[in-house]
């Protein structure tokens, strides 16, 4: 036979020391072709060179795996950072109140407190008692307290729109909060789904790589066994 020369090191060998192209997996053929272009079905390779390429292939598989895990880590850190930015964004939005908004909030919260009711009734009683007894001789608002009536209706008229303003503000705040919740929920849902996909992908990928490495190990075992015989 003319073709008893190793394709890689170009040295002559005996028939049983060579491996024909048909007995080599596609991935290893690709590796050989990368370094020594022109490999075809008729080519043969000596066992030493074949082992070198086989080891190279296994190293490549393991390194790919390492790269996969590093990529995954990077993506998780990236998404965690993005999540933080999302939360800061909405809290800033709720804090950007105008002067009028802040005053209406404060007036509404004071108007809805016991402090206001107690102060209001104290003034009312003082007013009525003052004008009935102490200023009996010269009251500035005699019975039936028309000025007090006017002031009370003014307070009621002003208080209603202020409370409504504050309620509108509260509504806007609630809406922003609800939107934020929705965004965070959506994001975590998407994240969980992509994580699922990543895990599935990793499992499948790792599984097929493990099977490839195992096939090579069985090949090596068979070689050793045939040598012992
Ligand atoms: Zn060789």
From TrEMBL:
The chain crosses the membrane at residues 116-137, 143-165. The keyword Transmembrane helix applies. InterPro entries: DUF1003. Residues 55-89 form a coiled coil. Keywords: Coiled coil, Membrane, Transmembrane, Transmembrane helix. PANTHER family: INTEGRAL MEMBRANE PROTEIN-RELATED, MEMBRANE PROTEIN. This is DUF1003 domain-containing protein. It comes from Leptospira bandrabouensis.
């Amino acid at each position: 036979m003319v073709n008893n020369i190793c394709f890689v090191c170009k040295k002559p060998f005996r028939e049983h020391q060579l491996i024909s192209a048909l007995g080599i997996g596609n991935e290893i053929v690709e590796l050989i072709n990368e370094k020594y272009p022109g490999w075809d079905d008729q080519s043969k390779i000596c066992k030493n060179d074949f082992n070198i390429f086989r080891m190279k292939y296994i190293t490549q598989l393991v390194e790919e795996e390492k790269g996969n895990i590093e990529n995954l880590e990077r993506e998780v850190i990236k998404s965690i950072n993005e999540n933080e930015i999302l939360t800061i964004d909405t809290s800033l939005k709720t804090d950007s109140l105008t002067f009028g908004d802040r005053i209406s909030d404060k007036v509404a919260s004071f108007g809805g407190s016991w402090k206001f009711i107690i102060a209001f009734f104290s003034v009312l009683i003082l007013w009525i008692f003052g004008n009935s007894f102490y200023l009996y001789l010269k009251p500035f608002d005699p019975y039936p307290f028309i000025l007090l009536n006017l002031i009370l209706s003014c307070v009621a008229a002003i208080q209603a729109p202020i409370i409504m303003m504050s309620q509108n503000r509260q509504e806007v705040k609630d809406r922003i909060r609800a939107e934020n919740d929705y965004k965070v929920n959506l994001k975590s849902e998407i994240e969980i789904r992509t994580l699922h996909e990543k895990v599935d992908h990793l499992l499948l990928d790792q599984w097929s790589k493990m099977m490839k490495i195992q096939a090579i190990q069985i090949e090596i075992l068979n070689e050793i066994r045939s040598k012992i015989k």
